[in-house]
Structure formats: C-alpha cells, structure tokens
Specification:
mainly beta, seven-stranded mixed beta sheet, four-stranded antiparallel beta sheet, 11 strands
C-alpha cells in the first residue's frame, strides 16, 4: 500500500485542520489505519487508529474529544479531523496501515505515508 498524507498547515490555537491520507496499491479496506505524530526532538506518538470497517476506534488521551478519525474505503482514504488545536499538537503527522487490526505501536504498522506538517501557533 502506498500512502500519501496531506492537509497539514499553519493554524492558530483553537482552530481546525482536516488531514487526509490516500491509499493505493493493495486493497485499502483490508487494513487498519492509524495516525501518528512526531514533534521536534520527540519520539513518534500514536494519535488514533480505526479498524478496517470503522467499527473500532482508539485515540490517545490527549486528543480525545478534539480529534476524530474516519475512513472511506470506497475512496481508499482515511481522515483525521482535528479541532480545538493546541500548540502542543504541533508535529509531523503520519498515516500508516496495519494488517494487525487496531494496534497502537508503530512497529506493528506495515506501510507509512510521508508525513504532513501541522503547526499550531499560540
């Protein structure tokens, strides 16, 4: 699966962004899809994951109630709607695909997109 993330940018605190991740290659619907982020000088952090049919979703505690992951298998796409953004959400965001269901460890993901930068100003 080839993944292409987009939608990042500069936004003020309290604003919103919607990230998109388009997949191609292998059947997209077979994979659980996750979003991760990496802030400067920090390790990669799990953000959210959605099962192949959207029936199971997990979030990291710091984004619960603010972010929403969704997918459209007909469009081979997964999305991350980010609301009430905070400066601490600033990071490069990556989408990734896993054949292991809904998992949170980066090591359990098989395919990665190139990342899209989100910058939240205070």
């Amino acid at each position: 699966v080839q993944l292409q993330a987009s939608g990042g940018g500069l936004v003020q605190a309290g604003g919103s962004l919607r990230l998109s991740c388009a997949g191609s290659g292998r059947p997209f619907s077979k994979y659980g899809m996750g979003w991760f982020r990496q802030a400067p000088g920090k390790e990669s952090e799990f953000v959210a994951v959605i099962s192949w049919n959207g029936g199971i979703i997990y979030y990291v505690d710091s984004v619960k109630g603010r972010f929403a992951i969704s997918r459209d298998n007909a469009k081979n796409s997964v999305y991350l709607q980010m609301n009430s953004l905070k400066p601490e959400d600033t990071a490069v965001y990556y989408c990734a695909a896993t054949a292991r269901g809904v998992v949170r460890s980066p090591s359990e993901y098989d395919y990665w997109g190139q990342g899209t930068l989100v910058t939240v100003s205070s």
